[in-house]
Write a structure and sequence with these properties.
about 325 residues, alpha/beta, D-Maltodextrin-Binding Protein, domain 2, 2 domains, five-stranded mixed β-sheet, elongated, disordered C terminus
Amino acid sequence: MRKKLWFALAACAVLAVGVAACGDDSSDSASGDTGASGLSGDIRVDGSSTVGPLTEAIAEEFNAENPDVKVTVGTSGTGGGFEKFCAGETDISDASRAIEPDEEKACQAQGIGYDGIQVANDALTVAINPDNPVTCMTVDQLKSVWESKSSINSWSQIQGLQPSFDEDLALYSPGTDSGTFDFFTDKVNGEEGAERTAGVNDIGEDDNATVTGVSGAKGGMGYFGFSYYEENQDKVKAVEVDSGDGCVAPAPETAQDGSYYLSRPLYVYPSDKALQNETVDEFLRFYLDNINAVAEQVGFIPMTDQQLQKSQQQLDSLTGGSAGGTTTG
């Protein structure tokens, strides 16, 4: 279960001062009747299973203050989310990577403008079973396991790995619609989308399945966003990664300063049409105004002050009418 206590307390605080909150999922269109906040309507979000829990947390808090707004958050993966977004089915796309050229073309074909706004940092985490004595792996060692031509089936076959561990590998990977899959294969294997299939359990967009698999197999290994590691430290162990300058652990500070090899920004992508809706504008402002506090509460890595200021300034420029077809990197 995601961490809900902080949000429950916040919702109760709202109720205590007499403002209706939590429990009204009904909503009118943006042009219909409005509640006490003056906002109403539906906001449709889909995309990254990494970013999804963060957007859900923000949506809960926003709904507590705006009970006539219904925010639905799907997790079809970054790629799956962009498919829906570029077809005009969603207002905002959660993404654990930047939009790609083929996705840009799909959006352009439908006349959908967009912009990518950073909302958090991530330290993509390689997770292993707690009984595994290994603490650090080089990028080359990770590649030897995960590359498409790999025939390694045991930890003992990984060259140079210390200490030695004689256990069969049990590998767990997100599906091809996942931005985490795209990012990991690009950074580790050197080619986005190129990964072995033999001996790999495809968990789709269910990162909790990786936790279950890795924790249940002594030779287990998988990868997911840092928040899933934070939530399951009693079940899995994080591998430090050596990209040439020594072993570095996934952590908030190493993600924020970029010293961890698998650190990355996390995004939301609103469409230009959605940004013309006051309800969507206010949701995104609420998102950025509250993101760092909420991120820490649910195990995500906050933005630096400089990153947050950049995202807020970007949103200000977009809501001023200059959105369309660019990304942040």
